[in-house]
Amino acid sequence: MKTSIKRAPHLSSYPKYWAECFDPAPFLPMSRAEMDELGWDSCDIIIVNGDAYIDHPSFGGALIGRLLEAQGFRVGMISQPDWKTVNAFKVLGKPNLFFGISAGNMDSMINRYTADLRLRSDDAYTPNNEGGRRPDRAVTVYSQKCREAYKDVPIVIGGIEASLRRIAQYDYWSDEVRRSALIDAGADILLYGNAERAIIELATRVATGEQISDIHDMRGTAVTKKAVPEGWTVIDSSRIDWAKNIDAIPNPYAMEGVGDERCKQDANASAASAEEPVRIIPMPLQRQHELDERKTVIRIPSFEKVRNDRALYSHASRVLHLESNPQNARTLVQKHGTREVWINPPPIPLETDEMDAVFALPYARVPHPAYGGAVIPAYDMIKTSVNIMRGCFGGCTFCSITEHEGRVIQSRSEESILKEIEDIRDKVPGFTGQISDLGGPTANMYMLNCKDPQIHANCRRLSCVFPSICKNLVTDHSKTTKLYRKARSVPGIKKVAIASGLRYDLAVEDPEYIEELVTHHVGGYLKIAPEHTEEGPLNKMMKPGIASFYQFKKLFDKYSKKAGKKQYLIPYFIAAHPGCEDEDMINLAFWLKKNKYRLDQVQTFYPSPMSLATAMYYSEKNPLKKVGYKKGGVHTPRNMRQRHFQKALLRFHDAKNWPLLREEFAKMGRKELIGTGDGALVPPESPQRRKPFKKRIRR
Questions:
Q1: 626-635: pLDDT as tens digits
Q2: Is the same domain home to 182 and 58?
């Protein structure tokens, strides 16, 4: 059955709120004094954000704030509040409509802890790189404090932390499955993904008198309900061990088995005057039924089940990811105790003119003046970069971009991007003429999408480029190449660098793009991410084989030579990824040795919430395939020493790693890896003279 192509109201189609009579604020106010200067007696919406307030479209708080301001709402900003006191959440007074709460551009746990669970001492999103300015699980803490400050004000949570915790999810830091952030935070509604559509619709509906508790039908949101409404069909996917012969599931809403004839008659009379009861269909039988997609929900295993059954956790992850295409995704429901967490389908992606309008809002493009001359590293990193698109159809299992931004590429127009380059040239203090990046989640997916909207509407692939590039994917990079050329020709621009990650298996489909990139936009080194060399871990990552790397390197070297430039590739690799055996890492180490790579920066797999690789890590099952109790096992390096060992193999040349490597090689019975020849990775331990022991005498 063909899926109908879904549209959404244009962002500009919503009526403006009465406060549009106020001019745009130089900065969204962070104090009562700033509100007074603007002539405001109150804020309609207050954003509580875990990052420093930088009025720039690369920062979610500023983008959502400016978008709401453009709709006529008075928006205040409480940035990095002291969560130990409720007074910090009262500085702007009581909002008229709701609090909007986000942990910031990063998940607060990933921001605060390394992959080895060590507390970070820095925070790039904080003035002077100061660590410790946000709490663990910031969305939950901020929500609780806002509720304490003003009990009756609705709470809306969003941003990447809430987005990746919209269902029950494995939490690496506590090593347990935690409830949906909607439940833990006690919020009224959760907005996931890029929330422009949802936040405008929500604010408009609340401003016209609707209660958030009555808003259950918005895309890109999660809410709680007491039960599935009457008249809906539930596809039951709460188990993986269905019997071979399934006739039906006993419907708990049916009145069968009532002994008294009078009760049956009463029940029939009630049914005739009301909507049909909830219909339940086992997942294996869903194709045998005609379903109204507008009133169909998929039940995934409950929080209590996935917390206690790792295979069911993997299964729930698989179902969620298969229901991620905005054109065909169905509503999901997951029971948490007596409440149902209701996850509406993902938002319809923005059209190009809508993206342009969002990026054209009156951003100051600098940090709020309250920070004085403090250095904010995250701002310094992006102040001369331009975000040209969002989304990623790569589907790498270790990455959470697709879970948050989706797989559909949303691109800005050439005119919008060039205008932002001019704004950077004219407005950024100390601009030297160099644009640090034209990119996004990836450097080379700009304007690339499915060739046929109808084919895309029916597609449930997790990746457009794995295990091979889909024949329906447009791979022509000419629009990106054209954009690069125009960006370089903007007066006052001396250099345009490309710093975003390059999908090199896609780039090789268009050699002209590689030539353009290599000739004009590489400053001697280009970072790319093969992630591994071995087929086992690469398949679990949904990454291409190493042959694609060689194909790209050949073109990179060819065009570098043609341009008369000496340039080098800097590859990135991951250690301890699910599916990665110690032998795989040893083979990777020999590959590095053979190719004379000495890596400076290496990474250990970090189980971020809701990613497919995290489901593998926790469950030791493979959600890329149908999950079963007796099959699909995935070797997972969970022991911290093994994780350290695999990471050390990426830097086998570093003498600091030699003691650990020697010890582990010996345990493996692989002492031939200790030596000086081509078949060894670390040198033998050199004999050292022992210093005579001197007994210390306290005086």
A1: 999 987 789 9
A2: yes
